[in-house]
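Lab meeting tomorrow. Look over both lines:
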Amino acid sequence: METDTITAISTPIGEGAIAIVRLSGPEAISITAKIFKGKNLTEVDSHTIHYGKIIEPQTKEIAEEVMVSVMRAPKTFTREDVVEINCHGGMVAVNRVLEIILSKGARLAEPGEFTKRAFLHGRIDLSQAEAVMDLIRAKTDKAMSVALKQMDGRLSGLIQRLRQDLLETVAHVEVNIDYPEYDDVEEMSHDMMRGKTKEVHAEIEQLLDVAKQGKILREGLATAIIGRPNVGKSSLMNTLVQENKAIVTEIPGTTRDIIEEYVNVRGVPLRLVDTAGIRETEDIVERIGVERSRKVLKESDLILFVLNYNDELTDEDVKLFEAVGGLEYIVIINKTDLDQKLNMDRVKELAGNRPIVTTSLIEEEGVDELEKAIADTFFAGEIDSGDMTYVSNIRHIQLLKQAKQALEDAMEGIELGMPMDIVQIDVTRTWEFLGEIIGDTASDSLIDQLFSQFCLGK
């Protein structure tokens, strides 16, 4: 385990009112005390903040005016001594403070190293550590709520309980095998093993059932806006984003590239992509945009397919219906403030059971109905971020699937009447897969890889 002292800037790069330089390690307080003019930081109480100045070591000149927070182990995030130096937010000021700290023996932290130390010292488990990044990256209040509950240990507690149930079952089998002469030990029968594996299997299935919703809350829905040129795709994006991100003109083919933006639709984060109109074109620049649009279409979770109420249905529209066949899409009939030329019966026939929403984006009509249709498509209109335990991390989902399969192998062995010590192998595999979620059975290389994705200074 690391014993040196690390430091990093913990606030975003750029100008601001305040920036924070954080230190963690056995010499965090003593290093800061050497460059701080004010109270003797080695003697102050824990969890106190002090006004003073950072002094240039060589010239003894004042480098910065600061507030310094001192927090002593073990009641800190990393369970080490932690110091946070609050500086003025300019890049020159905060970088100068960091340079002075480094000159006194601290080491620049690696990405995620503060959180990694919290994990290594038992302050949090691996799933809680990953929730820290989920919280930072949350795009909606519901995604933030799910991350906070995971940080608080809701998922960890459930996984630990399931592992304990499996451990007791395996231990019971071991006792039966190693000490068959003990009459007071209840024999682990196939019926008992079947009941326990079914209980754990049902709970894992329940987690996986809501995993799709959790993943959407964490990562957002990749959402493509498609349609012929000049049907109102850019207007739709601007309405949802509530900013003029896309160019809106009456000239077909104005959008020649992909414009991407995150939006919050009733708690559902959409990674919204406004694509170039998909059509045959001789313009080489526009053609590149069209090809990119086709690629985006294949990678999308949801497609918003826009038609013009004031235009007749064309062969291009029909081809677009064919292109999105089998995908999740919502048909949006735009420009209903104009005269109807679109054959709605034909549109309903082509759309099948897909939702159809009518809008007049210029009049801001139909937007609420569209947002409801999006929420209904993926969450039946409701997102329960209260009592529900969501699994949102793709690594966790994959491990749960492997645990579920191992349990099903065990259940199959029970039905075939295989010996308990053979069935126990698959139950133990399940226990190990679940342990990898919270870090109990995770390899060092996996842990290093996960924390390398964190922000510097977190």
Summary: The mean pLDDT is 81. The radius of gyration is 29 Å. The chain is about 45% helix and 15% strand.
